[in-house]
């Protein structure tokens, strides 16, 4: 699922070009600085929002409980289904098609029951998949291993933008959201001409990106970083001017 947003940044671009020139940046370097910052901010606005590892895992777990029942106790398989006892003594029974001992099958079930915003749909208890706590925890570990993948798509794009910079104080992604980084390259940047206008694109290659960041948040992230880039230039130049003043 792709996501695209046409963003009017002409006014911000003119301001950044002007103040960047005073700093000593070419227009290309100023745009790279903005682009790297935008990629990092797009990663911030991409679900899941919590960067803390424990909170991240708890959020994944809470999302899964909306579509899965996990029990801690014994289960007994029959030809028609599975009877089980939960940790607090409650008994349950499900048909074989709603019971799984495969962590990957639980992961697939969770992902198959998401709405357009990326959240799991809240299923009725009789509609949920059932598994043991051991199977459930293995499924959560699989999902946690892949959490942050969509964020990394934007961070990879930021790395791509940062190449070939000239001038001083180069922009970089660095250790931003380090926990979300993956070994595979999942994003890139590109520019193309539309008439007399140069169109800059930040490309996230994660297939489900459109489900976990809205067009509104894409626009917000880009405008936000444009304003912050302006502030960075002004703040940095003011600090440099202060150092040069005679004491």
Short description:
With 247 residues, the protein is of the alpha+beta class. Helix content is 47%, strand content 15%. It has a 3-stranded antiparallel beta sheet with strand order 2-3-4, with no helix packed on it. A two-stranded parallel sheet has the order 1-5.
Characterize the structure shown.
The longest helix is centred in the last third of the chain and has 30 residues, at 215-244. This protein has a three-stranded antiparallel β-sheet, with no helix packed on it. The chain has helices at residues 10-23, 27-45, 53-64, 103-112, 133-146, 149-161, 209-212, 215-244, and strands at residues 68-71, 75-77, 81-85, 91-95, 129-132, 187-194, 197-204. 47% of the residues lie in helices and 15% in strands. The protein is elongated and about 85 Å long. By secondary structure, the protein is of the alpha+beta class.
Which terms would index this structure?
single chain; 247 residues; alpha+beta; 2 domains; 3-stranded antiparallel beta sheet; two-stranded parallel ribbon; 8 helices; 47% helix
Topology:
Layout: H1 10-23, H2 27-45, H3 53-64, E1 68-71, E2 75-77, E3 81-85, E4 91-95, H4 103-112, E5 129-132, H5 133-146, H6 149-161, E6 187-194, E7 197-204, H7 209-212, H8 215-244
Parallel strand pairs: 1-5
Antiparallel strand pairs: 2-3, 3-4, 6-7
Helix pairs in contact: 1-2, 1-8, 2-6, 2-8, 3-5, 4-5
For the termini, the CA-CA separation is 59 Å
- Count the strands? 7
What is the helix tally?
8
Secondary-structure content class = alpha+beta
* Shape verdict: elongated
**What is the total domain count?**
2
Stretches where pLDDT falls below 50 for ≥5 residues? none
Task: Sketch the major β-sheet.
Answer: 3 strands, antiparallel
- H/E topology pattern: HHHEEEEHEHHEEHH
Radius of gyration computed on alpha carbons: 24 Å
Mean pLDDT: 87
- Order of strands in the sheet with the most strands? 2-3-4
Strand content: 5-15%
Q: Approximately how much helix is present in the residues? A: 40-55%
